[in-house]
Amino acid sequence: MGRKWNNIKEKKASKDANTSRIYAKFGREIYVAARQGEPDPESNRALKVVLERAKTYSVPKAIIDRAIEKAKGGSEESYDELRYEGFGPNGSMIIVDALTNNVNRTAAEVRSAFKKNSGNMGVSGSVTFMFDATAVIGLEGISADEVLEILLEVDVDVRDIIEEDESTIVYAEPDQFHEVQDAFKNADITEFTIAELTMLAQNDVSLPKEDQAQFEKLIDALEDLEDVQQVYHNVDFGE
């Protein structure tokens, strides 16, 4: 795997902390998840996943509660879940997931972000086949061997367990997200540095320095869009 998840998360969190955009994005995502079923994470698995992610980004309880109460209140506000695919400099690949109440606006904004930053929109399916949907769980203060032992005790077989920097990262199938977390919680481990359902590139690529700078501008432009929730790519920025 090798993706430096802590570095990616810290870069994104540092950028978003200055504008509170990440909180607004989580508020929307929590609201949408809460409307998909009961607004209770114990009976709504989609909501539970979002809340676990929100916890690792220190989203304030007030924002979480407001989004859930909005869903409980029967708000008629609705959002479409959209996925865009495209290419950055030197053939790099990008997936953009969005939640929007105006499909035409979002499509135009995403297309413009690609066009203005040396990228190109692709057709549906042009990129996703090179990515795998993956659950990523990160922990601190525990070794890969200890993690493996915990998972073996409850017969949970995951894709990979590796140590990155000061964390141990578990890569699993998406439908194992709760199973893996429950295994740790049963071992009295309740804090996670990462709790993500993501699209992980099958093969990372490195870009020349000039292309890497342009690529970062493209990713920033996409992440700056109000309707964009997640941006995935296959570029390894290195250390």
Listing every helix as H and every strand as E from the N terminus to the C terminus, the arrangement reads HHHHEEHEEHEEHEHE
CATH superfamily name of the largest domain?
A: YebC, transcriptional regulation domain
- Give the biggest beta sheet: 4 strands, antiparallel
Strand fraction equals 15-25%
Strand runs, count: 8
**Can you give the helix content as a percent range?**
40-55%
| Total of domains | 3
Distance between the termini: 15 Å
CATH C-level class of the largest domain: Alpha Beta
CATH topology of the largest domain: Alpha-Beta Plaits
Give the rounded overall mean pLDDT: 89
Strand order in the largest sheet: 3-1-2-8
Given helix and strand content, the structural type is: alpha+beta
> Quick one: overall form?
globular
Q: If classified by CATH, what would the architecture of the largest domain be? A: 2-Layer Sandwich
Low-pLDDT residue intervals, each spanning 5 or more residues: none
Radius of gyration, in Å, reads: 18 Å
Number of helices, counting only DSSP H or I runs of 4 residues or more: 8
What features would you describe in this structure?
The chain has helices spanning 5-17, 21-35, 45-56, 61-72, 103-116, 144-153, 177-186, 209-223, and strands at residues 80-87, 93-100, 120-122, 131-140, 160-164, 167-172, 194-201, 228-233. The protein is an alpha+beta fold and 239 residues long. Helix 2 runs antiparallel to helix 3 (45-56) and helix 2 (21-35) runs parallel beside helix 4. The two termini are 15 Å apart. The model has no long low-confidence stretch (mean pLDDT 89).
